[in-house]
Amino acid sequence: MRVVIDLSEDDLEHFRSAMRRAKEATKNLTPAEITGAAQKLLEDSQGTKMPDFVSSRMSRLGTLIAMVHDTAWGITDSERNEILSALTYFSDPQDAIPDTIPVLGFLDDAIMIELVVEELKHEIDAYDDFCAFRAQAAEQHGAAEASGLVRSDWLEQRQEELLDRMRSRRSRDSASYGGRGGFSLFSIR
């Protein structure tokens, strides 16, 4: 069975209001307390039977927490504050749907995670790519070497990949304009 939830602008405003209330209620919390509360929610959800929609969103919550704490990722203070701001919802004990209600208890959390993930999707995609880069390095060179990798190493590798693709396309395209040794506007003869 498939259930689709379409959120209207009024529905979204409900979640924005909940986020504002949560930020106000948690304004005196430290970053460690905010991520700790989000981590507790994640852990509490682990032993609970829940719909796939909810469980898949909970894993994204783990990604957000990791982004804040991963010093190798090296996010800016502004990026860290944006993620922490999004995580404040999970620090507020006044949940829209109490987490203790079977099946539905984490639904509001999952919807909020989905909204946060949608807003931060580019940062999350980049972080996921960085984690894959680090995991591949650990497989190829060992965990010790991979643990020393930082964001700039990943960016350098990405730059090399892009340059290689550009050169490959140029080579392919120049061959199609005249074959081997074909015409090129930029050849000096």
How would you describe what is shown here?
67% of the residues lie in helices and 0% in strands. It is mostly helical and 189 residues long. The chain folds into two domains: 9-119, no CATH class; 133-176. Helix 3 packs antiparallel against helix 4.
Question: What's the gist of this structure?
Answer:
The chain is mainly alpha-helical. The protein has helices at residues 9-25, 31-46, 52-69, 77-87, 107-119, 121-141, 143-147, 151-176. It has 2 domains: 9-119, no CATH class; 133-176.
How much strand content do the residues show? Answer: under 5%
Helical region count? 8
Main beta sheet:
none
Low-confidence stretches: none
- Topology order in helix (H) and strand (E) letters: HHHHHHHH
Helix content: 55-70%
Q: Globular, elongated, flat, extended or rod-shaped: what is the shape?
A: elongated
Count the domains.
2
Radius of gyration from the CA trace?
A: 23 Å
Q: What structural category do the secondary elements indicate?
A: mainly alpha
Give me the count of strands: 0
- Overall pLDDT, averaged? 83
Q: Note the gap between the termini.
A: 68 Å
